[in-house]
Amino acid sequence: MSDSGNEGNATNDVFSQDNETNETNETNETNETTEDEDEDSIEERDAPEPEGGDGRPFTHHDLAVDAEHENGYPTWIDGNGRMYGRDGTRVMVSDDWWETTEELYDFGDDMPGHERVETVIIPESGNVLVGIGGNFDETTGQIELLADDLSESETLYEFDWGRTSNSMGHAVWEDIVVISTYELSDYEGGNHANEVILSTDGGQSFEQVLEVPVVTTDAANNHVHDVEYDPYAERIWVLVGDHGNSQLYWSDDLGHSWESIGPRGSIVMLTQVAAFKDNVVFGTDGAPDGIILWERDGPDDAPASVDELERVHVEVKTDAADSGEVMQMYARRRWHIREDLETGRELCVMPFGFSPMNEDADESVVLASADGYVWYEVFRTDSRETLLTNVMGPLSMDASGDPTEDPRLLVSDSNQGEGYQVDARLPPFWELDDADKLRKLQD
């Protein structure tokens, strides 16, 4: 997600210089404003003592939960705070952080019986892109563009196999949109969700830039897990699974040519990739669960081999104590805001949810980092009824001395049941903690 902050316009007020009363009032108002700012200064807040580290996430900052509700499946938030989601054949929107929703568009009879809205993506152009598809091999998925007047939709691209996923496989930066398809492989029929498509015009059109070949049919699947557009290196990253078909690809020329990290199957399965200024991190799809990190030497650097990836940089277990077992889960749809590329002011929030195929797993966690090195566990569930799949927000990293004004975000189970949302505020650990100190403790 590109910079979502709103840039204010400066206003010059002209005051009469010969009116002593106005000058006095102006001075008093200025002093009061300064005093108020001092009272609400972030420096006035006390940071809790660090807990965790040593290869584990820090646990001394928790989401402040304002509300919880079951209200369907949100999948996206735009820079103005409008949320978008799905409900069968309908695209839903909300202007109150998904407390209430209304219909934006209904594909209705234009959508085949087994298809449904899977995800909604809004690039900076404001175009409303809708990924539709079906369950497993019943239908193929496609990308639709809603007309500005919402009178119709236009099919921009149809995948050969599979559909877009709401919890992985899409990235947006300014006018660049990268989307992949996801589905289980049909080896007998030769069908695989192995396509990556790219738009450079804000979602007006797409072209295929990668189709990943099969190298072994002994692996569970040959499909794309996730994509990322890296604005620091102007690079596309692509993660492919499973097992012997696993691979990490990247392209520095918008998909005209591709590099890979090594032989297929040499890298552990990964389901999320997030590009920070000084490193690129990967959320795992298998033990050891957590964050794998590749530290880069400038934006033009590229990984020479799998050995350069730190496995595992931060490990997630079934409880906050060292006695916990490794969780059988995988990383889901991250939120990444970059406010300043030059300084690397950015924030990534990444959920890890249990695999529904694992009958013994029942926990989800949310991790957050402002530099890719130091990670915090800020939320955890312990019920199989909740599978955290998506994070939307914060829209800004700005913070003050008032915790009730901390950056707001929505964590959601946008896959199962009636849906489940956590409307919460994230403590500004990037302002409160000494990142250099915690980095040493984490390592």
Characterization of this structure:
This protein is 7% helix and 36% strand. With 443 residues, the chain is mostly beta strands. The strands form seven sheets. Strands 22, 23, 24, 25 and 26 form a five-stranded antiparallel sheet that branches. Strands 1-29-28-27 form a four-stranded antiparallel sheet, with no helix packed on it. A hairpin with a 2-residue loop joins β10 (170-173) and β11 (176-180).
Rg for CA atoms: 23 Å
State the helical fraction.
under 10%
Uncertain stretches? 1-39
| CA distance, first residue to last residue | 28 Å
| Averaged pLDDT | 87
Specify the number of helices. 3
Question: How many strands appear in the DSSP assignment?
Answer: 29
Beta content: 35-45%
Helix and strand content put the structural class at mainly beta
| Largest sheet geometry | 5 strands, antiparallel
Q: Quick one: overall form?
A: globular
